[in-house]
């Protein structure tokens, strides 16, 4: 019950136990086409280029950034937590010129500040995280694509922690590339990364591939000029593999594709609106229960993620001792924190298969016992009823 990964849905695990298929087997390529169709509504898009990157969520982040930007390009990062910093680290390795517009951890960057920064910097790419689990905040994305197009920039969003749990409106927001992972709201294992790419971004990626093929290796030996992208993370090559051409790029991770396919089937079978409502109910119940235990909730309420809730560790309580007790006595994992929040807050996830009433009530009952055994003067018997009431108020 931490910020992810979470327990995979049993249907996903069963799907992943099926026999392997060759990567060019017609049944396998049929599954690839199904995956593309299944993930379009989950991303809120009609994009042709909606597919999977074989690797963890970070593989799709890196593939996107190295295929959009090249050395010397200016990239604006909207940074409000640990995973905004990850974007800057990847971009530094590319050799991009990085500008940031920042917010303190526990806040988001207001849209007017984002707009001002885009118009001032005029970047090649604008990159941000949607929901940053390190801070439990969700950055508003309405209008971001339009702001980027004003200055001719491409937009990239990491939705690893929110896809399948909060609405992602790729087309309506005008975002060029959105990526995610399975291990959070989609209820699967880490190791496959859904991605959607606009036609505009696809044209740029394919055009850049053709330009770079004409560059002699000697011309870039000193690091000047465009660099040819990574082979494994070259989106143009991966897109060729997912196209009707089926040009070989790598051996497809068949088992992970089965899992990703079933994650999407589960999500669409439940219905996206119902799924978003369930995550909102779970987040409200977790928040109400934590507050009833006497814990102060971290961060502002208006832009909080529905699937991850932070709570301040009470003064005088050993946060790691409580986490160890939860794990040792109840087999429940809750999250610690990064950076300036390390040792100061716990993070509680309620997402995907774990965004259920029973898991939340069990977690809160266990936490009550563990807080008491670690010397916190908790009021007994109030957390579960408070969480139950919050859940049912949204039913």
Number of strands: 11
Count up the domains: 2
Could you tell me the strand content as a percent range?
5-15%
Decide which structural class fits the backbone: alpha/beta
Q: What is the CATH topology descriptor of the largest domain? A: Aspartate Aminotransferase, domain 2
Q: Name the shape in a single word.
A: globular
CATH class category of the largest domain:
Alpha Beta
Helical content, roughly?
Answer: 40-55%
Sketch the major β-sheet: 7 strands, mixed
Tell me, rounded to a whole number, the average pLDDT: 93
Give the name of the CATH superfamily of the largest domain. Type I PLP-dependent aspartate aminotransferase-like (Major domain)
CATH level-two architecture of the largest domain: 3-Layer(aba) Sandwich
Low confidence ranges: 215-228
Global Rg: 22 Å
Q: What is the overall number of helices?
A: 14
The strand line-up of the biggest sheet is 1-9-8-7-4-2-3
- CA-CA gap between termini: 22 Å
Protein model, in words:
One of its GO terms (biological process) is glycine biosynthetic process, by transamination of glyoxylate. Residues 27-205 form the Aminotransferase class V domain. The protein is α/β, with parallel strands linked by helices and 395 residues long. It contains 14 helices and 11 strands. A hairpin with a 4-residue loop joins strand 5 and strand 6. The longest helix is centred in the last third of the chain and has 21 residues, at 272-292. The chain is globular.
């Amino acid at each position: 019950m931490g910020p992810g990964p979470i327990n995979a849905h049993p249907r996903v695990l069963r799907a992943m136990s099926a026999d392997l298929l060759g990567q060019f087997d017609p049944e396998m390529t049929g599954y690839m086409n199904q995956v593309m169709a299944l993930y379009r509504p989950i991303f809120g898009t009609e994009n042709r280029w909606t597919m999977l990157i074989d690797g963890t969520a970070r593989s799709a982040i890196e593939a996107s950034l190295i295929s959009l930007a090249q050395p010397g390009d200016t990239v604006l990062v909207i940074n409000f937590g640990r995973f905004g910093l990850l974007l800057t680290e990847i971009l530094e390795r590319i050799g991009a010129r990085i500008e940031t517009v920042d917010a303190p951890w526990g806040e988001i960057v207001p849209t007017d500040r984002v707009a001002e920064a885009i118009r001032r910097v005029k970047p090649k790419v604008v990159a941000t995280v949607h929901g940053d689990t390190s801070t439990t905040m969700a950055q508003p994305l309405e209008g971001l694509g339009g702001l980027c197009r004003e200055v001719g920039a491409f937009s990239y969003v990491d939705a690893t922690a929110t896809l399948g749990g909060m609405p992602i409106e790729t087309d309506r927001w005008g975002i060029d590339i959105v990526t995610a992972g399975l291990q959070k709201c989609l209820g699967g294992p880490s190791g496959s990364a859904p991605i959607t790419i606009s036609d505009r971004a696809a044209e740029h990626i394919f055009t850049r591939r053709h330009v770079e093929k004409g560059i002699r290796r000697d011309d870039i030996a000193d690091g000047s000029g465009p660099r040819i992208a990574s082979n494994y993370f070259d989106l143009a090559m991966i897109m060729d593999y997912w196209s009707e051409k089926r040009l070989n790029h790598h051996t497809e991770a068949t088992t992970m594709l089965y899992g990703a396919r079933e994650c999407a089937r589960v999500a669409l079978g439940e219905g996206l609106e119902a799924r978003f409502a369930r995550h909102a109910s779970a987040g409200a119940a977790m928040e109400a229960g934590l507050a009833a235990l006497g814990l102060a909730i971290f961060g502002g309420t208006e832009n909080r993620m529905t699937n991850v809730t932070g709570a301040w560790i009470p003064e005088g309580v050993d946060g790691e001792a409580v986490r160890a007790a939860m794990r040792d006595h109840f087999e429940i994992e809750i999250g610690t924190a990064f950076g300036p929040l390390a040792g100061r807050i716990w993070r509680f996830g309620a997402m995907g298969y774990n965004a259920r009433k029973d898991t939340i009530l069990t977690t809160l009952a266990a936490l009550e016992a563990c807080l008491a055994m670690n010397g916190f003067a908790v009021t007994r018997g109030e957390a579960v009823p408070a969480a139950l009431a919050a859940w049912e108020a949204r039913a």
